[in-house]
Amino acid sequence: MSETESIALMCLAMVGAIAVALVGIPWMVRSEREQRKRTPTAGMIGIADEIFHPGAHQADLIWVAQTEMPAPAPLAGDPFPDGRVTLELGEGR
């Protein structure tokens, strides 16, 4: 293999790697937001978000905290919202 062929092959490999990155990174970000699973790549993307776009990172942290936080349980002396309680059960119960 000549020197020009090896240089051409290396350039082709770099172009292919860039193309894979340009397609793969947005796909990983989209699938991460849809599934909300924690993976090592999500951690790297989260770090980049925290450094380069801290407002978006903070909004994401608030959103995650709100979705994971349970609703507060009523206390024993709390009044009912409108004074009447209606329990509706689905059919077949």
Write up what this structure looks like.
The protein has 93 residues and is mainly alpha-helical. It has one domain. The protein contains three helices and no strands. Helix 2 crosses helix 3. Keywords: Membrane, Transmembrane, Transmembrane helix. The chain crosses the membrane at residues 6-29.
Task: Outline the fold blueprint.
Blueprint: H1 3-35, H2 40-52, H3 54-68
Helix pairs in contact: 2-3
The poorly predicted ranges are: none
Taking all Cα atoms into account, the compactness measure Rg is 26 Å
> Beta-sheet strand percentage?
under 5%
Shape: elongated
Q: Give the tally of β-strands.
A: 0
Count of individual domains: 1
Give me the number of helical elements: 3
Cα-to-Cα separation, first versus last residue: 76 Å
- Percentage of residues in helical conformation: 55-70%
| Biggest beta sheet summary | none
* Overall average pLDDT: 78
Transmembrane segments: 6-29
Keywords: Membrane, Transmembrane, Transmembrane helix
Give a nutshell description of this structure.
The chain is an all-alpha fold.
Offer a few descriptive terms.
3 helices; mainly alpha; elongated
